[in-house]
Amino acid sequence: MLVGATGLIGREVIAHGASLPDIALLGLARSEMEMPPGARFELLLADPENWRDAVAAIKPQVVICALGTTRRKAGSNEAFRKVDHDLVLTVARAAKDHGADHFIHISSVGADAASRSFYLRTKGATEQALHKLRFRRLDVLRPGLLRGARQSDFRVGERLALALSPLTDLLLWGKWTRYRSVAAGDVARAVLQAVRERAGGAFAYQNDGIGRLRARFERGR
Fold this sequence. Notes:
There is one protein chain. The protein is globular. The strands form two sheets. Strands 3-2-1-4-5-6-9 form a seven-stranded parallel beta sheet, with helices on both faces. A two-stranded parallel ribbon has the order 7-8. Helix 1 (about 10-15) links the parallel strand 1 and strand 2 (about 25-30). By secondary structure, it is an alpha/beta fold. About 45% of the residues lie in helices and about 15% in strands.
């Protein structure tokens, strides 16, 4: 089950998952979306207030969570937290209660429950809460700036950062490489590889780890 299907990474997961016969992908969303060409994907529509019941009806084995918004788009810190923390955990708890044993979550580089940044603090708190649910396997991906075409989501600061990323990426070395930009399609391929991983445990991936997952995906296609 994919939540966050209408976002940048969600659409890439749908597009790249179309050619994978071993994965049956079903999405849960609040509104209809334009499907990528060749998509092999079912979409269940429900108001987020009813997502717990929707998850119970789907009974997913694996959950890919690409939910996320911004403070500007949400309108307030409280509204942002309701999506990036509360709604993520609603989905995770319902999935765990109804048999899911594997949860894959798209977080953010720098996520830290003790951060001064409300955005990163919220992301970190969400990660901590997911760990406490004790899925058989938990994958947390922390990509840097995402490269890709967003739909109906104009972000001035992000557009500027993307324009500068070919230069700024060259300046980021050592522990700072995790802040380099990454193509949304590469994150999606890493996510789909994580679906196939069978070992139990909790795993976190910065940009380099995301790259290794993506490489395994390409080798296994």
